Fold each of these.
Amino acid sequence: MTEVIQVSDLEQGYGKTVVLKDINLTVNSGEILALIGPSGAGKTTLVSTIMGMLKPMKGQVTVLDTPMPNRQLLAKIGFMAQTDALYESLTANENLMFFGSMQGISRKALKEKIPYAANIVNLVPDLKKYVKDYSGGMKRRLSLAIALVSDPEILILDEPTVGIDPELRQQIWNELHKLANAGRTILLTTHVMEDAEEADDVMMIRNGAAIAQGTPKQLITEYGVKSSETVFLAAGRQQDAHTNND
Amino acid sequence: MRILTMIKRILTEMLRDKRTLALMFIAPLFILSLLYFLFQSNTDQTAALGVRNVDTTLVKAVNNNHVKIHQISSDKSAETIIRDHDYAGVLSQNGDHLTLTLQNSDQSKTAILKQSLQKGQIELKSKAARTAIKTQAKALKKMQAALAAVTRQMGRAGNGKQVAQPAAGKQLKAAPSYTVTTHYLYGSSNSTYFNTLLPILIGFVVFFFVFLISGIALLRERTTGTLNRLLATPIKRGEVIMGYLSGYGIFALIQTLLVVLFTIYVFNIQILGNIWNIFLINILLAVVALTLGLLISTFASSEFQMVQFIPIVVIPQIFFSGIIPVNQMADWLQPVAKIMPLYYGSQSMSDVIQKGATIGDIAPSLGILLIFVVVFLVLNMLSMRHYRQV
Ligand SMILES: Nc1ncnc2c1ncn2[C@@H]1O[C@H](COP(=O)(O)OP(=O)(O)OP(=O)(O)O)[C@@H](O)[C@H]1O
Ligand SMILES: [Mg+2]
């Protein structure tokens, strides 16, 4: 197993405000890492930094042994943003075509890959529809399909399961496991523990700091609780106790 | 490859957005036509003029297509008559003295009356002068005959000059006659202010609409997050900008051709210079507007804010585009014109259309427009850094 994503001693923020501090994480190839944390914790900031959209204030981010930010490396990352960034006046198929070729995939290859990606998110019958006629959940699914369409080595998904029904959620997770087994590396963020439980590794972020890290099972035993839901609460209380002591 | 895909996407989006298309292609023609008719109606205007005790010869001279004469017999004051009948003015004569009373609520009518009166007087004077010359000519002929007779006599007697001179000197004092023929360098006696304004207007209309539409298009891309998403792919920042530039450039090009051809063929505008120079200027102006629109959209966070930039970025450019002659402005104001792209565009447009300037003549202005393009492009590249560091 090789280290695909490595973040060491990262400090990140906007302007002078620091949003993330002392972040260390490693994702190996074939692994799924879930970042879980409350709203405003800094998950999106961390993901943007790994993508190289933001330059680290302190510390280092390397992806496939290349220090980020690096433009060429983006061709190997399939990205799904938290907010749906789609061209509303284009059809789903045209959106997939556009972002696919921006990713560097030839038109011919895309024609084969679009049905595959659309199938994972059950969008095949709606590919010819304009995005402006899509529901919120359909837009989320299309965003995910765009991340998958280039068949990338690394998948970075910011809250991929929001607005997706349980049945489809299961189908998506099956596909993600399949991809991971095939050696793809996946990093995703979520609010819900159910997603985290599916991941190989979980990293909890709260107020910009990593408060717990390990496999879901490890965390349950470590905190001496019954379910992963309560791990999060326990870890949060511990962090509050520390900050009060300081 | 990526640029081509971007162009294709922009074209598809634009072609589906019927309202923006209409704004880009029909609105400029609409505005130009509106202005055309606004300025046109001015020349067909007539002003009502009441006349009282005025010599019929003068009334005849003053009368023209733009003046409607009303004879007045009442003794009421000129002011009352104007109010009662809504005349543009009243002309009354008292011996040699003329009094023109003007309503002056419409300056263009006032101007018509003043001009007509002046023209009438000149006409009378020149007529008088012509008559004087004719009489003079007759007198001269008589004198010549007399002189010849005298010379013949004097020839015999000796020197005749002394007799002839005083008589000739007296005759030459009469008024000289001028016949005025007006030549028009550009246009004709039918020319209106519109003809002078048109070259400036073409440039402005092209500039304004390209600026607005390209600015709002990129803004939409920023606010919907698609720009961020786009920069999460390995596309180069320069490719994004070139994609926009060429995609919207195609529409700007069509718009420019449409506006120029429309004004030339529908308004029947005479162009002294080469039409290709006109296309060249406007295309360059459109590219400046495009790059400026993309840049300004960086500083706006909504369509509404983009519109707020119009009074700051576009309106001042109109003032310095030549509608008010720049060389007549206060000294400290003149350099301001030099930082406005529209100034160079309009200037060269006027030069080509009205003075027949060649490509060599307008090259310096075109060069400066090109510099604007380069500067805005570089600034655009820098502003893209905000979205992705590499
Ligand atoms: N562009 C920005 N400029 C300034 N501050 C920002 C910016 N984006 C995020 N922040 C701040 O950084 C902090 C972390 O935001 P971030 O979006 O990373 O949270 P998150 O964990 O993704 O939250 P959520 O689960 O709601 O998406 C927040 O306090 C937020 O206010
Ligand atoms: Mg987020």
Note: The beta strands of chain A are 3-14, 17-28, 32-36, 58-63, 66-67, 77-80, 154-158, 185-190, 201-206, 209-214.
Amino acid sequence: MSTRHILLALLAKGPSHGYDLKRRHDDHFPQARPLAYGQVYTTLQRLVRDGLAEVAGTDADGGPERTLYRLTADGSREATDWAGQVTPPAPFVTNEIFAKVVVAILTGGDPAAHLLAQRAAHMDRMRELTALKTAPSAELGTVLAADYALNHLDADLRWMTTTQARLTTLTAVTVEVDRA
Amino acid sequence: MSNRPVPLLVARDLVKAHGSTPALRGARLELAAGEIVAVTGASGSGKSTLLHCLAGIVRPDGGAVTYAGERVDALPERRLSELRRTDFGVVFQFGQLIPELTALDNVALPLMLAGTAREAAQERAAGWLERFGAGERPGLRPGELSGGQAQRVALARALVTGPRVVFADEPTGALDSLASEQVMTALVHTARETGAAVLVVTHDAQVAAYADREVRLQDGVTAGLEVCA
Ligand SMILES: Nc1ncnc2c1ncn2[C@@H]1O[C@H](COP(=O)(O)OP(=O)(O)OP(=O)(O)O)[C@@H](O)[C@H]1O
Ligand SMILES: [Mg+2]
């Protein structure tokens, strides 16, 4: 999700100036990092350069003069296209656990032992999260966050289990090939 | 750890083959009173076989199972069935409810076998069905229950007599994630309340996370972490 597309989407509601766009972004996405004004300004310049937005005049409103921007026809189309597109599932997740297991395999280390130790650490964390979410006093926000974390840790564990099994199979195959 | 309580149930170097198929090849496990342990591992790694040996349902070919000072693996059949009636509660992987009895009577039966009058047994059984979220239609027979409902009934049946050790083989296998959460919360809550030890076999890490610790089985052998010498 880029600032460019967020601004296009916000401008789709009507002409607006940079400060107003920043404020609306920060209101709509309270969990996200607030937009820096400089970033809003440079992004607006690029949208103009690419023919997706244009200057619609200035708006003084008592204070300093502000440049109003609005979408061009191309910009509207781009905003609609982006909002309607299904997000591509990330093809590959780069992850530290994954990297370490690969390194262990490449360098002749002990990936199985590493996987076992990592599993223990994951299970410890999952026990903490389970205790957190099943506490009688747990609030909905806590429960949802714990569910989210538990499901992602669980996904890691499934990959680790599959990898462990593959390592065993691959080793067995290698041994057979060596004997042949 | 040195301050762990004396184990209630101990399995040492269990070996068991089904015909020529080895199921256990030196599994070890300790369960303290009130402790909740998850046994996990791949399909066919020997989890159910281990549970059956521990609960005195199957005799191991080698090794020892000791429960509160008694050698379970060497007990005569009569003492074994008494133990299973009084001290152990078992949830089988594939249900094993009695098809001719209603859900309520399935749960009440262990109490009646122990001498409780029918009406009192049914009243307590109803409470346990309620606790596991299966109290709505106690008159249904196992054939009329969904897989998940049957599992809840089987859990209620295992706990109705107040066992000191509960053995549960994939008790949430047929449940979705929220139903699993409900059943596991009830199981853990009951165990904490009554001081029962629980051995839960599962392939689901999110279910295993309700336990105090995990024992992993791989090709009939327990891996690392679990044995305190
Ligand atoms: N009654 C039986 N007769 C023959 N072989 C059996 C029998 N029960 C189990 N086995 C074999 O023993 C091994 C261990 O089986 P077990 O049922 O203990 O595995 P499990 O870990 O519980 O698997 P799952 O996760 O699929 O329930 C497997 O190879 C299985 O095929
Ligand atoms: Mg099994």
Note: Chain B touches chain A through 16 residues (CB under 8 Å).
